[in-house]
Amino acid sequence: MAQSSVPKTEGSGQQAQLEARKKKMQEWLSQGQAPFPTAESCQPRNLASELQAQYQDETKESLEQKKAAGELPTLAVAGRVMLHRSFGKSSFLTLQDRSGRIQAFAQKTQLPEPVYEMIKHMDLGDLVFVEGLPFRTKTGELTIEASRFQLLTKSLRPLPEKFHGLQDIEQRYRQRYLDLMTNETSVAVFRKRSQIVQEIRSFFSERDYLEVETPMLHPLVSGAAARPFETFHHTLKMKLFLRIAPELYLKRLVVGGLHRVFELNRCFRNEGISIKHNPEFSMLEFYEAFATYEDLMKLTEDLIERLALKICATKDIEYQGEKISLAKPFRRLSVQDAIREFAKIDPLDSQKLENALRARKIELKNKPSLASLQWTVFEEMVEDQLIQPTFVVDHPIEISPLARRSETRPEVAERFELYIAGREIANGFNELNDPEDQRLRFEDQLKRKAEGDQEATDFDEDYLEALEYGLPPTAGEGIGIDRLTMLLTNSASIRDVILFPQMRSLHEERD
Fold first, then answer.
1. Cα angle: 98, vertex 104, 106; to 5 degrees
2. What structural domains does the chain harbor?
3. Which residue from 485, 276, 475, 487 is spatially nearest to 389, judged by alpha carbons?
4. DSSP string, 56-73
5. Which of 440, 200, 418 is CA-nearest to residue 324?
6. Beta-bridge partner residues of 136
7. Does residue 379 contact residue 338 with C-beta atoms inside 8 Å?
8. Among candidates 338, 245, 317, which has minimal Cα distance to 283?
9. Phi and psi dihedrals of 272, rounded to 5?
10. For residue 335, how many other CB atoms are within 10 A of its CB?
11. What secondary structure letter does DSSP report for 75?
């Protein structure tokens, strides 16, 4: 994110605390306590959560007996001070490391005087190293009695809120580091996101898919219908576009003989921002030769059911108050049947479709086709009602420029989209491998672009040449990692599952 997106928080109170902490740092420095030492000789050997588990069965008495017998190991932890209580000759500090929290205890009689004086005046947010033996307090809390203590980093700014964490949602997104320091729920979400990605990799590797990487800078607009971000390469003197989707590059690899490929990639679409959309997002895209979109629907059911069990420990989850079953099989429903069922409109009656959209104040360009009307009605009146997992099939060919045309119903594509909780999670289809049909579709996209369609794709002659060498019958699919993570972590907004979501400039907001 640009620097301008970080809010300035120096009110009079904040500035006073900043100056006080700087003064304290200088005093400690004059007493030989370096505020920013290296980690040499102060590296932790233990994690808080591991110690809590290791000593969960040890009582206050058993630890005292082992200490007397010389059987306790010396522990070493490092973390951020989250709570601090000083009682003159002794102090308790709650430290937070990457795994959790543990308490430390410091006594004036056990540490050099300058060190203990520093501990007495320690600030919340300071990073410290503690070494010592474990014991339990009168209240039963596992604690490390410090025999050695080292300041690792002096925090010059106070933490956002002593007990309740960062409550300002906007600030949580703009300053994610503060959110992660003070909000255990956010940390859990991003740990689960990492687990989701790892599990996806394992799932496809087990099925003999090869993970690949394709370009993020494209010479043409391709891969999906979306407005692109533009950039310029000065040495090559050429305009380039940030990747909308990796589709055409991945299918080139299938032509080359890599018959099962997948990519976990970053994509960019110069479109609106909402709780479901971020201009930069993560996507899983995969292709399998000699497979059909029916095969991929089954594979997708297997993947999502497995992720639910791994991440949520159940196939039955709750998302924003809705009970959702991720157990396979998922429902199949055509676009037209979905319109009949949920919008209560005849999908073959253009006038009724148009009237329904106009009643919702939805602008229609020129004279829309039946296919265009059907899809707009689906998006505006049906999509958000698809709560349980549903494969929507039989999309109009007009809105599916890269999908194979149905042999029995040429007006529809052999394509599906998976909807869960009222939003699209996945999109897959039998790939178009007829180069002449693909040429006609590219030409249609050029006409749309000439008419002002900012989401139309370019004519990719090199891709057509690749098809002329022969693309095997292939099925491909894309799954949105961010939306999938939202679903499996019960997160309301896409910004909750992206570490650094795109935010509006604060300067613009002030204007």
1. 145
2. 12-159 (2.40.50.140), 182-330+388-510 (3.30.930.10)
3. 487
4. TT--HHHHHHHHHTT-PP
5. 418
6. 142
7. no
8. 245
9. -65, 165
10. 23
11. E
With contact defined as beta carbons under 8 Å apart, do 36 and 154 qualify?
A: yes
| Backbone φ and ψ of 290, nearest 5° | 65, 30
Give the H or E element holding residue 120.
helix 113-120
pLDDT tens digits, 12-59 = 678 999 999 999 999 999 988 999 999 998 999 999 999 999 999 999
In this structure, how many other beta carbons lie within 10 angstroms of the beta carbon of residue 48? 23
Q: Which of 304, 473, 306, 319 is nearest to 391 (CA)?
A: 304
Contact 419, 434 (CB under 8 A): no
> In this predicted model, what pLDDT tens digit does every residue of 360-380 receive, in sequence order?
999 887 788 999 999 999 999
Query: 78, 42 in Cβ contact below 8 A?
Result: yes
Q: Is the pLDDT of residue 10 over 60?
A: no
Rounded Cα gap, residues 317 and 459, in angstroms: 43
pTM for this entry: 0.90
What is the 3-state secondary structure of 271-338? Answer: CCCCCCCCCEEEEEEEEEECCCHHHHHHHHHHHHHHHHHHHHCCCEEEECCEEEECCCCCEEEEHHHH
Q: Could you give the C-alpha distances from 46 to 43, 132, 144, 335, 453, in angstroms and in order?
A: 9, 11, 11, 56, 58
How many CB atoms neighbour CB 336 within 10 A?
16
In whole angstroms, what separates CA 163 from the centre of its chain? 27
Query: How many alpha carbons fall within 13 Å on the CB side of residue 147?
Result: 9
Whose tokens are 């990519």? That residue is 263
Question: Locate tokens 């533009």: which residue?
Answer: 230
Strands 260-268 and 210-211: parallel
CA distances for 20 relative to 14, 142, 151, angstroms: 10, 32, 17
Q: Which of 271, 263, 300, 261 lies closest to 494 in space, CA to CA?
A: 271
